[in-house]
Design brief:
By secondary structure, this protein is α/β, with parallel strands linked by helices. It contains 10 helices and 5 strands; from the N terminus they run βαβαβαβαβαααααα. It starts with a strand and ends in a 9-residue tail after the last helix. It comes from Streptomyces litchfieldiae.
């Protein structure tokens, strides 16, 4: 059973999400919160595998709450999915750095929301060439989400040539199966490479691998 916490300052949206999540026999909503501080309280009290987190809330916002989750070893298994409108949120790269597993538009189809929760609970990242990847590229081109911090390309010196290839494909939003087909290897081999990338680059998940690929210049933001 996947435990889900809903964090959004709009009660109507939380109610709609609750009905949807509870309609799935493999999921249950363990709590709701209207701001980040309340979300942290609910997570620690009731438990959560996945948090659907609005990025903009009064008091402690979703970004600060995501940082707090990522910094707490007791919450290491909690995965955060940011609820956002792709064109308007300025904090996406910072949220990925803080440990968010990906992004989902508030206008997503119900089936897509449930799929996103399952992916996050399984440790996967919600990255697609048409959504998160383009969003990351745009904000990195504007200075990396506002704090001006990046990573030196030398951070990739620990990688083998094949690991670099896999990192490029991960940054392109490809799944393990798609990467395996493109590089003519088995999905198990790709999984092994990704696990090594996570260890060598001290990344929490695939989402942070994408940020690293852009910040180090391995992958360049599109100009358009």
């Amino acid at each position: 059973m996947i435990r889900v916490v809903l964090a959004d300052d709009q009660a109507l949206l939380r109610s709609a999400f609750r009905v949807l999540v509870d309609s799935d026999p493999g999921m249950t909503v363990t709590g709701e919160a209207s701001d980040g501080a309340e979300a942290l309280e609910v997570i620690r009290r009731a438990g959560a595998d996945v948090v659907l987190m609005d990025i903009r809330m009064p008091g402690m916002d979703g970004l600060a709450a995501t940082r707090a989750i990522g910094a707490d070893p007791a919450l290491d298994e909690v995965r955060v999915v940011i609820l956002t409108t792709f064109e308007s949120d300025d904090y996406v790269v910072e949220a990925l750095r803080a440990g968010a597993s990906g992004f989902l538009g508030k206008g997503a189809e119900p089936a897509d929301l449930l799929h996103a929760i399952r992916l996050a609970a399984a440790g996967e990242a919600l990255l697609s060439p048409t959504a998160t990847r383009g969003l990351i590229a745009r904000f990195l081109a504007q200075g990396g989400g506002g704090d001006g911090e990046g990573q030196d390309a030398s951070a990739l010196d620990v990688l083998t040539a094949r690991e670099r290839e896999v990192l490029v494909e991960v940054a392109g939003g490809l799944s393990n199966d798609e990467i395996a087909e493109r590089l003519t290897v088995s999905p198990l081999t790709v999984k092994t490479h990704i696990n090594r990338l996570l260890t060598k680059l001290s990344a929490r998940d695939r989402a942070q691998l994408v940020v690293t690929a852009y910040e180090t210049g391995l992958v360049r933001p599109r100009s358009s």
